[in-house]
Design brief:
The complex is a heterodimer of chains A (about 240) and B (about 190). Helices cover about 30% and strands about 25% of the residues of chain A. By secondary structure, chain A is of the alpha+beta class. In chain A, a hairpin with a 7-residue loop joins strand 1 and strand 2. In chain A, helix 1 runs parallel beside helix 3 (about 35-45) and helix 2 (about 20-30) crosses helix 3 (about 35-45). Chain A starts with a helix and ends with a strand. Chain B is an all-alpha fold and about 190 residues long. Chain B contains 8 helices and no strands. Chain B has helices spanning about 5-15, 20-40, 45-60, 70-90, 110-130, 135-145, 150-155, 160-175. Chain B is globular. Classes of the chains: A alpha+beta (about 240), B mainly alpha (about 190). Chains A and B meet through helix 1, helix 3, helix 4 and strand 1 of A and helix 2, helix 3, helix 4, helix 5 and helix 6 of B.
Chain lengths: ~240, ~190
């Protein structure tokens, strides 16, 4: 390999070649293993510079703009696989899940709406970056439901979960929805964090978490007004949390 | 720089159409992608457009990502830089006379990230400061401002060959300095 090629490899790693020059060098590298190795080495060297790139906080709505651009081409979010749903539901069929809100009194549909107003806040402004995110997808019964759940401050005493959903159907008469979370240390027991009855197909909810923990999943169940405190076993949607950092 | 199999898993999920995974990736790398774009284009509006372009590109090309060629962060920063350079050339809107300084942000997403970013950034700055000024200038102008070798030659009034030679010498020197400054050279398998 001559000095000219080494110079070109360094310039390519720095992104300083024109597209045509870069393409020619790449082509040459496919025939010249020594050049290819040098190019790789310079590219590896360049990675040390990544640490000095300034982090600049983008505008708050920038990701929404990305999603708007994707909207026409967005592949529907895959619904939870059946075994995932089973994993969330099975414990509730044998373990009495705790409720953190009072059980409903039979037939008091208005109570559900009132509680929803208490727990459902309009947005998550002021919460900062979430600790974890879950892509929430509808179950087979409700395939159009989709959205996102975000955990904020989940390792502290004042943590919240924000649940944004779209295409939420109006619950049938005598039914409402309930939001549940699953913590690592809960022994498979999901914990209810709040209830809601949507007034439109889009909901933006914020609930207080039951305490600090490593939250694994979120689930939205369909419940009968005044029904048993356990999870009904019938889910509207759910998702698994992934840490954001 | 965080990057591990977790990122690769996110890319796989994005390739399957999971916008939630794209959101997680954005939370991790949105600030550095935006920072890179802003660094090159010099104005926030164009940097915002570039940042959108990067995540749209990731969405569309996630299936083509090759973990053996580059880490996810390196891949995204490379896309960001290329989009920003394209934007500058397209709009002929390069900021006037970029200075060859090392840039340290005061807007890291949170305190822990900021502290880590500052620490590693300071080490990079120290390593760059250890380069001869003539070599440091060409690296900064190329990498942080997106100038091509011919643009650098014109800006610094140097022969093209001299610019390329200085780039090579700078990278050779930087490679040798990396262990001394505890800088990770990210070799792919």
């Amino acid at each position: 390999m001559n000095e000219h090629e080494r110079d070109a490899a360094a310039a390519a790693a720095l992104g300083a070649l024109t597209p045509d020059e870069a393409a020619r060098l790449e082509e040459e590298a496919t025939r010249n293993p020594e050049l290819a190795a040098e190019l790789d080495e310079y590219r590896a060297t360049i990675t040390v510079l990544e640490a000095s790139i300034a982090r600049e906080r983008p505008p708050a709505d920038l990701f929404d703009r990305v999603l708007e651009r994707l909207e026409p081409e967005t592949t529907p979010i895959a619904a939870p696989r059946s075994h995932d749903v089973a994993r969330w539901r099975k414990p509730m069929s044998r373990i009495r899940a705790r409720r953190l809100v009072p059980a409903f009194v039979a037939g008091v549909a208005t109570a559900a709406a009132a509680i929803a107003l208490v727990f459902a806040l309009s947005d998550s402004d002021g919460l900062g970056s979430p600790d974890a995110l879950a892509a929430v997808a509808g179950t087979e019964e409700f395939p159009n439901v989709r959205g996102e759940a975000r955990l904020h401050g989940a390792t502290g005493d004042d943590g919240v979960v924000v649940v944004d959903l779209v295409d939420v159907p109006t619950p049938a008469a005598g039914e409402h929805y309930e939001v549940w979370v699953l913590r690592e240390a809960s022994g498979g027991e999901m914990e209810a964090v709040g209830v809601f009855r949507p007034t439109s197909s889009s909901v933006d909810l914020r609930f207080t978490l039951p305490g600090p923990g490593d939250y694994q999943a979120v689930d939205v169940s369909v419940e009968e007004d005044g029904g048993a405190p356990e999870h009904s076993g019938r889910s509207l949607a759910g998702g698994r949390f992934e840490p954001t950092a | 720089m965080r990057d591990d199999g977790d990122d690769a898993a996110l890319i796989r999920r994005i390739g399957e159409g999971d916008t939630g995974a794209l959101r997680v990736l954005y939370e991790r790398y949105g600030a550095i992608v935006f920072g890179m774009a802003l660094r090159v284009v010099g104005d926030r509006q164009t940097a915002e457009e570039c940042t959108q372009d990067v995540f749209v590109a990731v969405w569309r090309s996630a299936g083509a990502y090759d973990a053996e060629r580059a880490s996810v962060s390196t891949w995204m920063i490379s896309i960001a830089r290329n989009r920003a350079v394209d934007a500058v050339r397209r709009l002929a809107a390069r900021p006037a006379q970029p200075q060859a300084e090392v840039f340290v942000s005061d807007e890291a997403p949170d305190t822990a990230d900021r502290a880590a970013a500052l620490e590693s950034s300071e080490r990079v700055a120290a390593a760059l400061a250890d380069l001869p000024e003539t070599q440091r200038d060409v690296v900064v102008l190329a990498y942080f401002h997106g100038l091509s070798h011919s643009e650098i030659a014109e800006r610094l009034d140097l022969p093209l060959g001299t610019v390329k030679g200085r780039m090579r010498l700078a990278l050779d020197r930087l490679r040798a300095l990396a262990p001394q400054y505890s800088l990770d050279v990210e070799r792919q398998s």
